[in-house]
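Methods — Computational structure assignment.
A single polypeptide chain was analysed. Its primary sequence is given first, followed by the predicted tertiary structure written as structure tokens.
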Amino acid sequence: DGTALRGDLSGSLVAAAGGVFAARHEPGSYAIVRAGTPGVRVLRDNQVVAVTDARGRALVPGLRPFQRNPLRLALEDLPMGAQLGRDGLEVVPGRRQAIAADFGVRQVRYLSTRLQFTDGGAPPAGAEVQVEGLPEPGFVGYAGELFVEVPDQPLVQIRVQWNGSRCSASALLDGSATAVIELERLTCTRDGEP
């Protein structure tokens, strides 16, 4: 019928880091950023150059080969329970090379609860809390308040000690929960109690 359609397509396809990425055509090298979370803006020289996909990855095109290219993540885009291994990276790719840029982001879960003895009392404020599987201790707050990091496993074991006294508690947590898990109370059994 005399109708014609014409189009031009320009860009790059980069196959790297177990995926295929589409990008606009820019000279230089590439970085595959791993942030572990979707929707995180990636900045190069303080300018937004990419946003992570559903798998938490982004392709950053146009890197200067054999030079330092500073990359960082927009921290406000990360979820509450995210912890960064590094807040910034300088990548130095070769010519027309794709290089991995892993910020070491990991999801952390916290437990918010009130520790209570079977008789209704609570460990004193400042008592040291050790969560099994984590190296850093936490501390009990006023009236048994507790806010500590917990490992990503269903059963959490907690040991509390103060002035030569000890108690222990365990909690079965929902495996799908992230960020902050809230429990109203958690019974802390003193050593020697049944």
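Note: The chain has a mean pLDDT of 84.
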